[in-house]
Design brief:
Mean pLDDT: 95
Strand content: 35-45%
Radius of gyration: 18 Å
Shape: elongated
Number of strands: 9
Distance between the termini: 16 Å
Largest sheet: 9 strands, antiparallel
């Protein structure tokens, strides 16, 4: 049964990255603030790679980049209300800019998406008029790659259907264990 839950986890993540209306299309990404706190934000989940890493896009000047450079530990939380399924992943985030992975993804930045990465000033900078944002030709684009080492699976159904498991990566194998929900 643990292997079924493990496989379901990866299937739901794959669907989240490939099916436009899937609830896993967005998730909460948490990083450590420079001051020591935790910062969460909702992000679009872009891809589950063949290596089972998760990709997200961001502006290279965003505060999360500085946070990740200081402490690459991060987590992502996904929830599918129709299945009452919560998936929590934690691990290390790697920042990609101007490498082969980045090159594979920058070609996807077109149309309205360009405006997510071409503002004159970094995201979060105070402005007087939200309509008058100055844009440049430069794309401040980065790909974040979450390399998970721990995954928690939780079905929130009523008892006795509630089930929880943890998957921990040790060397090259995933150890799978049930947890009390």
């Amino acid at each position: 049964m643990l292997i079924d839950l493990f496989n379901e986890t990866w299937k739901e993540l794959e669907d989240g990255a490939t099916k436009y209306n899937h609830p896993f299309r967005t998730c909460s990404l948490a990083t450590s603030e420079i001051s020591g706190g935790i910062r969460q934000r909702t992000v679009n989940f872009r891809e589950l790679t063949k290596k089972k890493t998760l990709l997200f896009y961001t502006d290279l000047r965003s505060t999360k980049i500085e946070q990740i450079r200081k402490n690459p530990q991060a987590s992502a939380l996904f929830y599918n209300p129709s299945l009452q399924l919560q998936i929590f992943l934690s691990g290390i985030i790697k920042i990609h800019s101007e490498d082969s992975l980045w090159n594979d993804h920058i070609v996807n930045i077109e149309g309205r998406s360009i405006n997510d990465y071409n503002t004159q000033y970094a995201p979060g900078k105070p402005i007087k008029n939200p309509i008058a944002v100055t844009r440049t030709k430069d794309l401040n684009f980065a790909v974040l790659e979450l390399i998970p080492d721990t995954i928690e699976y939780l079905k929130l159904r009523d008892e006795p259907g509630r089930i929880r498991a943890i998957f921990k990566l040790t060397d090259t194998e995933w150890e799978k264990t049930f947890l009390i929900p």
